[in-house]
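Researcher: We're reviewing a set of sequences before deciding which ones to prioritize for further study. For each one, I'd like a predicted 3D structure that I can look through quickly. This is Ferredoxin. If possible, include the structure in C-alpha cell form so it fits the rest of the review sheet.
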Amino acid sequence: MTIETPEIKNACLSTSICDHINQQGIIINYFVDAFKMSRQFHFTQSDSPFDMLCAMAVYNVKLIGPDGTENEFEAPDDTCILDAAENAGVEMPNLCRSGACSCCLGQLASGSVDQSNQSLLDEQQIGMGYVLPCVSYPKSDCVIYTHKESDF
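Model: Here's the predicted structure for Ferredoxin, in C-alpha cell form for your review sheet.
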C-alpha cells in the first residue's frame, strides 16, 4: 500500500500533509501501519492513531465579555481565536482581521497565544496581556476578557 491509496488519503485529516510526506520521501510504513491498526482494532475517528498523527492541538478558550457573559469553545492551534469563536457561534467585535486595528482587542487573563503576525501592540502592551484575537492562535487553554478597545 502506498500513500496514493485512496483509503489512506481519506483517512488523513489533511491530504496536503500526506502529499508533503510522500514528496519528502519520509518512510510511509508508519502511516500504513497506523491505518491498518485503526481498521483492525476498530478505532473511532477520534482515537485512531492515524488521526492523531495528522491532527492539530485543540485548546479550550473562554471569552468573558464586559457584562461578565462567558462563552467557552474549542479552538485548534491553527485557527485564530476570532475565527474559532465565530465558528462556535460567538460574536466578537472585529474590523481589519489582520492585527492592524484595535477593534477586537482583548486581555489575556490566563494561558498563552501566538500573535506574532500582529503589528499594533508594543512589547509593553503585550506584557500587560493585551491580545488581538483576529491574529492570535492558542498555545494553551486561555481565558480572555473581550471588548478592551477602550483601554487602548
